[in-house]
Amino acid sequence: MPATPAWPPRSAPRLFVDQPLEKDMQITLDGPAAHYLLKVMRLGEGAMLTLFDDHTGDYPATIIGADKRRCTVTIGDRLRAREEVPDIWLCAAPIKRQRFDWVAEKACELGVRRFIPVGTARAVVDKVKEDRMRAHMIEAAEQCERNALPQLADFTSLGAMLAEWPGERHLFFCDERGGSSFRGALRAHDGPAAILIGPEGGFTDEENAMIRDLPQAVPVSLGPRILRADTAAVAAVSLWMAGRGDWS
């Protein structure tokens, strides 16, 4: 008796939909999603794909109707629940657009739970486009088979963020002026955590002092070499994932 092939096949397109899914639902896809399925992938009725919703998990879907600009799909049995993610936040000062989009993309791939854009005195960017950043996170999740997106917080100033900082959450402050070994700090500080990355020009003296005054702040070093802000963000999250996250 021949083996039953996996369904949907691993080659099937995988897309995010911004609504909770459940078995036997019928939903209509339009806009970029429909264009990708119908024009780029050239799929039609009967074609299979995978959908995820950032709420309940991954589901197989079958196209049951299509025209030039939209398609209707029916949802099958859930393939897997929404994945658990470690309790780590990434707080980062905005940098040039493409590089900050890259940081958001990598934060999703690495499993960051919450991403907070933080305004600082020396940041060359004073605003961010949340829709574009979220689009980069979604694309990363689609390609990497993730089904949990980071929560993207509103842009906030450094002072406002520190004033409302939760008492139980450590803030690993990547300080180019020097700090303790990050690996050693991870061994000494368990529990909910966040990583703070400054702008390309670094924090001012006043900002540095304000951060260090926070009881939950833990100044850490990323080694003997100065890193660009985007490199520092990925390096720090990777170190945390290896020491306290789900890489072990």
Reconstruct the topology from this structure.
Elements: E1 14-16, E2 26-29, H1 31-40, E3 48-52, E4 57-66, E5 71-75, E6 80-81, E7 88-92, H2 97-110, E8 114-119, H3 130-144, E9 151-152, E10 156-157, H4 158-163, E11 170-174, E12 180-181, H5 182-188, E13 193-197, H6 205-213, E14 217-221, H7 229-243
Parallel strand pairs: 1-3, 7-8, 7-13, 8-9, 8-10, 11-13, 11-14, 12-14
Antiparallel strand pairs: 2-5, 3-4, 4-5, 4-6
The CATH level-2 architecture of the largest domain is identified as: 3-Layer(aba) Sandwich
Number of domains: 2
Q: Report the portion of residues in β strands.
A: 15-25%
CATH superfamily of the largest domain: SPOUT methyltransferase, trefoil knot domain
> How confident overall, as mean pLDDT?
92
Number of strands: 14
Structural commentary:
- The protein is of the alpha/beta class.
- The chain folds into 2 domains: 68 residues, Hypothetical PUA domain-like, domain 1 (Ribosomal Protein L25, Chain P), CATH 2.40.240; 156 residues, Alpha/beta knot (3-Layer(aba) Sandwich).
- Helices cover 31% and strands 25% of the residues.
- Strands 7, 8, 9, 10, 11, 12, 13 and 14 form an 8-stranded parallel beta sheet that branches. Strands 1, 2, 3, 4, 5 and 6 form a 6-stranded mixed beta sheet that branches.
- β3 and β4 form a beta hairpin.
- The N terminus is likely disordered.
